[in-house]
């Protein structure tokens, strides 16, 4: 489970300040009814009637993150790369405290915010209401939300082609939804901001705006994690990159070096 640890500030101000420490983190999902027939309602009912405890029968384990350790520092933008299913989203969810660790620990300075493509906004409400809800959910006051409302809408670019902000969010394209979610999350300064694929969905103009905002967030002393399948986004935004494969940390180093090795291995 993620914990908040008080990490002392450096006296000189030049020392690197850690914001996230992952110490030998293992994460295991338990999938109920994962194999043939065992997942049906009648099978579950007969198990209950037999009094099975469930852990051994019909429960499959997926060991998604295997012994990952690293330390992230204030001011860093860190890319997370790896092929599909390598454990990137799982690791971010654990850092955000949304998933328990099987063993090992995550220490964080402050509350990390995870901005995923599935960030919980309400499809039936208008973009306008979602900006307000999202702002309040991130801990802004009503006054702060009111002050930043126009900036958020302008940043998202939602209204560039008409008055879309007053339409329900379910009517937005996936790119429009992702832009609004990013604009809401980026309106606040975060200690640790984690972005899961959000940039890949916006168009080029929006990507450039987001990359600028990520650079600003870094200057404001936060740490940014970015999961992306776009090597160009990682290259433009991150100076350090972690490469995960089958849940293990294969490489951790300067972005150029890690991407070169990744591109050689995967051919892209
Ligand atoms: N809710 C879940 N229940 C069970 N297994 C899961 C769950 N979410 C992910 N997994 C498994 O955990 C492993 C890592 O998945 P994860 O989504 O973290 O990978 P990823 O690197 O983010 O992938 P992608 O690049 O495709 O988004 C995969 O084997 C996946 O099947």
Q: What is the element string, with H for helices and E for strands? A: EEHEEHEEHHHEHHEHEEH
Shape: globular
Fraction of residues in helix? 25-40%
Biggest sheet statistics: 6 strands, mixed
CATH-derived topology? Rossmann fold
Number of domains: 1
Q: Which residues form runs of ≥5 with pLDDT under 50?
A: 4-12
Average pLDDT = 84
Can you name the CATH architecture?
3-Layer(aba) Sandwich
Task: Going across the biggest sheet, name each strand in turn.
Answer: 6-7-8-4-9-10
CATH class: Alpha Beta
How many extended strands? Answer: 10
**Terminal CA distance:** 35 Å
What's the Cα radius of gyration? 21 Å
Strand content: 25-35%
Separate helix tally: 9
- Name the bound molecules: adenosine-5'-triphosphate
By secondary-structure content and strand pairing, the structural class works out as alpha/beta
Give the CATH H-level superfamily.
Answer: P-loop containing nucleotide triphosphate hydrolases
Family: Belongs to the ABC transporter superfamily.
Organism: Streptomyces pyxinae
GO molecular function, one term: ATP binding
Protein name: ABC transporter ATP-binding protein
SSE map:
Blueprint: E1 2-4, E2 18-32, H1 41-50, E3 59-73, E4 77-81, H2 88-95, E5 103-108, E6 113-115, H3 127-137, H4 142-156, H5 174-186, E7 192-196, H6 198-201, H7 204-219, E8 223-227, H8 231-237, E9 240-245, E10 248-254, H9 255-266
Parallel strand pairs: 1-5, 4-8, 4-9, 6-7, 7-8
Antiparallel strand pairs: 2-3, 2-5, 9-10
Helix pairs in contact: 3-4, 3-5, 4-5, 5-7
Bound molecules: adenosine-5'-triphosphate.
């Amino acid at each position: 489970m993620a914990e908040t640890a008080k990490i002392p500030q450096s006296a000189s101000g030049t020392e690197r300040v850690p914001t996230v420490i992952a110490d030998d983190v293992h994460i295991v999902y338990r999938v109920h009814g994962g194999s043939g027939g065992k997942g049906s309602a009648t099978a579950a009912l007969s198990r209950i009637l037999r009094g099975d405890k469930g852990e051994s029968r019909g429960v499959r384990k997926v060991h998604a993150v295997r012994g990952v350790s690293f330390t992230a520092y204030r001011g860093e933008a860190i890319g997370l790369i790896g092929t599909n299913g390598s454990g990137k989203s799982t690791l971010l969810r654990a850092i955000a405290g949304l998933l328990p660790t099987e063993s090992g620990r995550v220490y964080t300075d402050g509350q990390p915010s995870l901005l995923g493509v599935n960030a919980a906004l309400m499809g039936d409400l208008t973009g306008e209401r979602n900006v307000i809800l999202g702002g309040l959910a991130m801990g802004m006051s009503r006054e702060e939300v009111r002050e930043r409302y126009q900036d958020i809408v302008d940043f998202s670019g939602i209204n560039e082609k008409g008055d879309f902000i007053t339409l329900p969010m379910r009517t937005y394209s996936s790119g429009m939804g992702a832009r609004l979610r990013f604009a809401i999350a980026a309106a606040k300064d975060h200690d640790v901001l984690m972005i899961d694929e959000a940039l890949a969905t916006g168009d080029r103009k929006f990507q450039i705006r987001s990359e600028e905002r990520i650079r600003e967030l870094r200057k404001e002393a936060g740490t940014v994690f970015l999961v992306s399948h776009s090597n160009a986004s990682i290259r433009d935004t991150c100076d350090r990159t972690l490469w995960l494969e089958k849940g293990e940390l294969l490489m951790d180093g300067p972005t150029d070096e890690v991407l070169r090795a990744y591109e050689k291995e995967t051919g892209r």
